[in-house]
Amino acid sequence: MAIQAPLPTATRKLDELIARVKDGSRDFVRLAVRDRIRLLDEMRESYRLVAEESVAAACEAKGIDPTSPVAGEEWLAGPVIVLRNLRLLQEALKAIGREGVPRIDRSWIRTLPDGRLAIQVYPSNALDATLLAKHTGEVYLEPGITEANLGEHQASFYHQPHDGEVCVVLGAGNVNSIPPTDVAYKMFVEGKACILKMNPVNAYLGPFLERAFRSAIERGFFAVVYGGADVGEYLVNHRLIDEVHITGSDKTHDIMVWGPPGPDREARKRREEPLLKKRITSELGNITPVIVVPGPYEQDELRFQAANVAGMVTNNASFNCTSAKLLVTPRSWPGRPGFIEAVDRSLKKAAPRKAYYPGAEQRWKRFTEGRKGLRLAGDPGPGELPYAFITDVDPERSEDPIYRDEPWCSILSETGLPGTDPVSFLEEAVQFMNAKVWGTLCATIIVRPRSLKDPAVQQALEKAIDELEYGTVAVNTWASAVFAVGSCPWGAYPNATLQDIQSGRGWVHNSLMLEGIQKCVMRAPLKGFPIAPWFPGHRTLLQVARRLVDFEMDPSWLKVPGIASAAIRG
């Protein structure tokens, strides 16, 4: 198939759509819960019908053979996540209809040492527990939320609805589940009608979403528009738009909010007078760190985690805000050289990919030219980039772009910090991450469970998880698992200001509609079976992903053996 991006939406058409959706927003606010459930059901059924075509278009745009295992990435990062997200929102709305809030079982709640609540949001049932075996996801809440008042911090729209608002969603261009799931969150958690502006990079997805969400479009609850920065600027400044949500870069965010770089912008920041007066929520990327805690690992454990890290780099040609970008190791740990070699070998198992995102080659050159310790993996063809692994970056050079600028291309760096024992190293790593590395979205910690039998190490790990200023902290797994499961909130650590936005503000996914969120923590075994779908060289990824689409449309124990058998052969 030949993919074609729709033409930019004309200004007159934009005005018509904005007026229509503004009118529709008032009807959407009054829509009964049972009718919202019905609308979600129509959206799910229609989305399933366009899934195959949308994946084929994504494969063509990203240079992927649609029959290859790598094509499974597009099924997983598109239809699987979207269908799961919509299904979980349906389940939440059914619980609201019965009980007033999405259901939280008492067994999912525990109290942290300082009195805050932690709520287990994954798995919520035995079927979930089979999909990501032995993974658990918890939400840490802000102080003041108790078990007694927890219901007051869920689903506030359904208790205190607004009068009808329109949110412009500026869609991400890299992962095709992001635009529809951002829209679903704003519509069904916050009760806002939405106008989605497609990113020019994946504008080909827009017509599929128009077909999939036709029921919402026909009722004036939703619209899709196209164009570049000029269309985005027109939308966000339109008088009928109430709110903006962007998944993109902090630079785009700051231009919208504060204007172009220069003295005028800085003066506005000092006066706290943004150009954009509307509410804005955002997810703006990250220099994603992977922290390796020293310990007496077995060789198979190190190989497994090396493949895990490599998969965090190679997935989606490294155009993920969760892509591993900075490997943080203990400088004097005897296992450091071997782990670096294992990561290097795992990167070489992945074929180079088309650098489909604009400017990737220039960014890749800027980060790699003249670098010591540069290792390259793969033999790239035209339009492709090798995986670059830059080792032994000086941690004292805090001005190094490796710590300040997200590469947004196929680059992984490594630095060594002081601390030969787990306790001192974790303290050093937390201080380094929070003070010197840009971004507050997500981080991973690799730690050997046997080390945690020492109470001092266990306490140090929990302290590190709590103190890391990231919206997601994943232990022994990729933070993208948090993004994928839908029940976990996804967003940056809630300490950003408009003047220093870091990785953004606000949450999406979050099907339990929790409020007062500090972070999400996901824990997994150090070594698991079967291998995760993002591991380089996964042989049956396409079969796994397609079977998961069928599962998410209608979860059943009868479908689990087929998924498991495909996953085991990976």
Describe this structure in words.
The chain is α/β, with parallel strands linked by helices and 570 residues long. Helices cover 41% and strands 16% of the residues. It contains 19 helices and 20 strands. The strands form 4 sheets. An 11-stranded mixed beta sheet has the order 1-2-3-20-17-16-9-10-15-14-12, sandwiched between helices. Strands 6-5-4-7-8 form a 5-stranded parallel beta sheet, with helices on both faces. Helix 2 packs antiparallel against helix 3 and helix 11 packs across helix 12. The longest helix is centred in the N-terminal third of the chain and has 30 residues. The two termini are 29 Å apart. 53% of the residues are buried.
Write the layout of secondary structure elements.
Blueprint: H1 11-30, H2 33-62, H3 71-99, E1 109-111, E2 117-122, H4 126-131, E3 136-141, E4 166-170, H5 178-188, E5 193-197, H6 206-212, H7 214-218, E6 222-225, H8 229-236, E7 243-247, H9 250-258, H10 263-271, E8 279-283, E9 288-292, H11 299-314, E10 324-330, H12 336-347, E11 353-354, H13 360-368, E12 374-377, E13 384-385, E14 387-390, H14 401-404, E15 411-417, H15 422-436, E16 442-446, H16 455-467, E17 472-475, H17 480-485, E18 489-490, E19 508-509, E20 517-523, H18 541-553, H19 560-568
Helix pairs in contact: 2-3, 2-6, 3-5, 3-18, 11-12, 15-16, 18-19
